[in-house]
Amino acid sequence: MSTQNHWKHTWPCAQIFSEFLCANREKIEGKTVLEIGAGATGVCGLTAAKLGAKRVLMTDHPKLDVALQTLQRNIEANGVADRCHVAGLDWESRESVSSVISSSLSSDLSVIIASDVFFDPSTFRPLVDTFAQLLINFEHAVIYFAYQQRDDSWTLAPYLSKYPFLRVELTRRIETDNETIDIFTMTKESLGLYAGIEGGATGSKLVIIDASTNRQYTSSTQGTNFFLTDYTVVCQRIATWIQEVFTAEGLEIRDLRALGLGLSGAEDEEFNRKFVEEFRRNHGKSITANFYLTSDSVMTLLANFPAEENGIVLIAGTGSSCRMKRRDGVVKGAGGWGHQVGDGGSAFWIAREAIQMLFDAEDGFITDFNTDVIKELLFKHYSITDKTRILDFLYSNFEKHKIADFTVSLATRVDDVSISEVFRRAGDILGRHVRTVAKHLSEEDRKVLHIVQIGGVFLSWPALQNGFVNALSGSGTHKIIMYEPCDSPAVGAAVLAAKEQNGIYLEQKVKKNVLREIDL
After folding, report:
1. Where are the domains of the chain?
2. What CATH number has the domain spanning 7-188?
3. Can you give the residue ranges of the ATPase BadF/BadG/BcrA/BcrD type domain (predicted)?
4. Exposure pattern of 248-278 as b/e (b: 16+ CB <10 Å)?
């Protein structure tokens, strides 16, 4: 664009557009105005200044030195240097637009004008990108742009489809003896808000995404596993939480279009149906009646493997579970059934296994492990002086996370033989989770497994590794690649809600950081 010479001329479109501005003075007077593609003359921007605009920023490509210098002289010659300023702006550079937004534009920008900028089709896409970027940052601004008809096939539709929140209307068509000038208005309309919740046993995360700008609002609260807490209580807790966050962030609850829920324990269809009915009956009108419920592990799959690809999510936090999504969309799972019949390899399982090893050793059931270090850590962690006091925590005053927390203390002493063995066993169980779901892959796809790991237990990976790798030996898997999650399940839940409710595809991170690659 910087090599072209359009800027040297005053085109008929600029005169007609300026007359339009004069006929609609109220749209300009007292407003802060940005002109895109001012050229050397800046006729439209100067007109805005003469009409009483509070401030006018006139821009064109930063490499057009002569044009920008001439533009500055025209400003001075017209006696509006007190309220007109010049800046370089490259439509094809998001960085250039961002720089102008941050350094040259004030928050009260309300009018953007552009005359005959849609001249060269090669610039249509970056121009629309620029308009979208400006309206995202100044959501109440209005863009007026003029176009001189030259080509019957002229259209912005392919480029506007990228931004469903942009609304373009033909405001005026002006016929002269030689030209037809169309004047359009472009504004940003809200696509609404979409919320997603990742509900774990001990903690939950809420993400609210503005579909128009992709801005995110986040909050955290207590666990929302409805097998540990009555589902009616969880429904009320979620509804209250959402309302509190909307109020705190200054958001309108009526703008919430849909809610996606990825909750720990949401594995049974019948139980999920009851939850959905309860929520809709009591909170459908005050929150939203449009929501989608699945387990936290399945939602994690959708967040981290959104494309047609094979992927495994292995969770080992307070609890544990493993879910795999095949490239055909089929989901298979292993574990995830809670601490009574599942949670193998989790923090709860590790803590309980160590405590049982201590009791078994002191009862004489096992003789091959010295459990003195486990006992020392147990007494210190729970501030007790007798091992039987731990029974209060395991039974009468049971709270799952309080038992799981003991694993943090155990992880500080994986050099101890007994504790090392507990972590090795945990690794073995987690490896068997992966081996179990991988059976549902073809022989070829099973050779390399892509695994997203989630949960604090993996901070002790060196202590888990031997058991994990041995569990996969002979399974037909030749290599495993383990990743950090690229996006939270809460984001995945919001993305699913937007897609299912209105066919809107929200942006989400897709790049996963590789933590380790292991050849088996």
Report:
1. 7-188
2. 3.40.50.150
3. 196-497
4. eeebeeebbbbbbbbbbbbbeeeebeebbeb
